[in-house]
Amino acid sequence: MKIGIAVAARMIGGSAIGALCSLRAQSSPSRSVWDGVYTEQQANRGGALYRQECSGCHGDSLTGADEAPALAGGSFIANWDGLTVGDLFERIRISMPANRPGKLNREQIADILSYILAFNRFPAGKTELERQTEVLKEIRLESTKPDQKK
């Protein structure tokens, strides 16, 4: 009986450690916006969509106005630093455009988000920004390039 309890305790402990490691992996995304997570073509599509759907509130230069926050520059970066692209994607998906939340589909949001990243001078890459929140939660928004943080 004691052996059975000891084995069960080890199994539960092992499961708990495995779950903790899994949570830790989920809470610390492995990529960042500095890794080229969108393409220039996608950002160009996003620019056209941004002008059509977003610039009325956030401005042509993404500086924001009145109640609309800036989507570029120091205040934007400070607000989102340490969060994920998935967090920003979900904010847009759920609440934008303000006059018609949910109007934009996932592809349009990814394109607009690519434009926002490009405007903020994060580098383009060779693959388009994903459209699935779970994948985007693996990409950190970081104000400075990881190798420059030292």
Structure characterization notes:
This protein has 150 residues and is mostly helical. The chain contains 7 helices and 2 strands. The protein has helices at residues 2-27, 40-53, 55-58, 74-80, 85-95, 106-119, 133-136, and strands at residues 31-32, 139-140. A two-stranded parallel sheet has the order 1-2. α2 (40-53) crosses α6. The longest helix is centred in the first third of the chain and has 26 residues, at 2-27. It is globular. It starts with a helix and ends in a 10-residue tail after the last strand. Residues 4-26 have low confidence and may be disordered.
Strand order of the largest sheet: 1-2
Count of helical segments?
Answer: 7
Radius of gyration: 20 Å
The H-and-E topology, N to C, reads as: HEHHHHHHE
Q: How many angstroms does the end-to-end distance come to?
A: 54 Å
Given the C-alpha coordinates, what overall shape results?
A: globular
Largest sheet: 2 strands, parallel
At a glance:
With 150 residues, the protein is an all-alpha fold. It has helices at 2-27, 40-53, 55-58, 74-80, 85-95, 106-119, 133-136; strands at residues 31-32, 139-140.
Keywords:
single chain, mainly alpha, two-stranded parallel sheet, 7 helices
Q: Any chance you could write out the topology, listing elements then pairs?
A:
Elements: H1 2-27, E1 31-32, H2 40-53, H3 55-58, H4 74-80, H5 85-95, H6 106-119, H7 133-136, E2 139-140
Parallel strand pairs: 1-2
